[in-house]
Amino acid sequence: MTQRIDQDWLKRPSLQTLLALLTEGEGEARIAGGAVRNALLNQPISDVDIATTLVPRDVMLRLKAADQKAVPTGIEHGTVTAVVDGDAYEVTTLRRDVETDGRHAKVLYGTDWTADAARRDLTINALYLNADGTLFDPLNGLPDVEAQNVRFIDDAETRIREDYLRILRFFRFFAWYGRFRPDAEGLKACARLKDGLQDLSAERIWHELSKLLAAPDPGRAILWMRQTGVLSEVLPETEKWGIDALPGLIAAEQQQGWDADCLMRLMAIVPPIPERMDALGGRLKLPKKVRLRLQHWAAFGDLQPQLKKDAFYQWLYWRNTIAAADKLRLGIARDDENAKKCLRQLKWLNRWERPQFPLRGQHLIDQGMAAGPAISEKMAQLEKAWVEANFEPSLDDLLALAK
Question: Based on the domain organization, do 8 and 39 belong to the same domain?
Fold first, then answer.
C-alpha cells in the first residue's frame, strides 16, 4: 500500500510553488531526507531539502524565470538555495559517487533516484516525498523508521570508509531517533574504523558532537560511543573521567524544565581542569564564545552551597555568573546532600542583578588624591568593603570612608 503524508508543512505555498517549478516539463523534484523522516515520526520539521533531476544551472534558470531568488551556496556539490516568497530551501541535483577518500567524494550528476539514495549514509535518511505527500522509498527504509532502527545502507564498513564522519553521524542519529540498542553491524564497523576519525577536520567533528549532545537524551549514544572506543578518539578527556554524571544531568533537566544544552552535557563528561579545557578547545577549534565558557567553568573552583543569600551574593559578585550557573546546575544534577542548597542558590542567581560599584577613580582625585597606583589600591580596598557591607554604602559613604 502506498504511504502518504498529510501535514500542514507540506502544503506551504512556497514549497508547493518550488516543487511545481522543478517538475514542469522535463524534470522531477521531491522532498528528501530529514524532513521526510521527521514527518513519518511526527517530529518537528525544521529545514526542508529538495532533490531534483535538474542540474544546478537549470534550477537557477527556472527560478530566475519565475522571478524567484537563487543563491549558489553549494554549487560545487550540486546545491542551490532557492528563496521562494521569502522561504529558503536547499535544492540538490541527484548524484552518484565515483570516488571517495574517507573525507570527500567526487560525484556525477544523474537522474537515478535509487542511486542517489544509495550514496546516503543511513536507511532512515534515504526517503523522499512527492509534492502530494506520496512516499518514495527506494531502499526500503520505512521499516527502520517505524522501528526506530538506525542502520547503515548496505555494508556498514563501506559506508564509513566513504566518509569517516559517518561514525559520529551513526551515534548522533541514534541519540535522536534510535530505540533499544544500535545496529550490531554498525557498532562493530564503528569500533573497527574509529582511527579514521583522526583525519577529519576539527570543525566537522565538533559540528556532529554538538548536535549529538543536544539530543533530548544522548546518554545511551554516549555510552555506546564509550564502549566502542569512539568517544576516546574524539574526546580523550573523558577516558579517565567517566560519563556517570550525564544521566543525573538529563534527569535534572527534565525535572527542572531546563533547555537541552550541549555544552552542559559536555561539562558533565570532561574534567574541570583549565589546562585540559584549553587543549580541548584548541583541538576542536571551538568558537571563541564556547571556548571561554568552558574555560570559565573549569577555572571556577568549588561551590559554596552552605552560604546564605547575602553571603552568596557577596561571593558571587567576584565570579563569572555564567560559570556559576553551570557549576550549580551540575551540583543539582549530582543529587547529593548539597543538591537542594545548589538549587536554592541557582534561584537566587537567576533573580540577581550585579550591583554597580558607585565609586570611580576620578572621585578620589577630586578629593585630592594623587593619580597613580595608589588609586587602584584604594579602589580595591573600598570595593571590598562595599561588597562586605552587602553593597549598601552610597557614594557619599564611600567618599567619607576614603578620607
Answer: yes
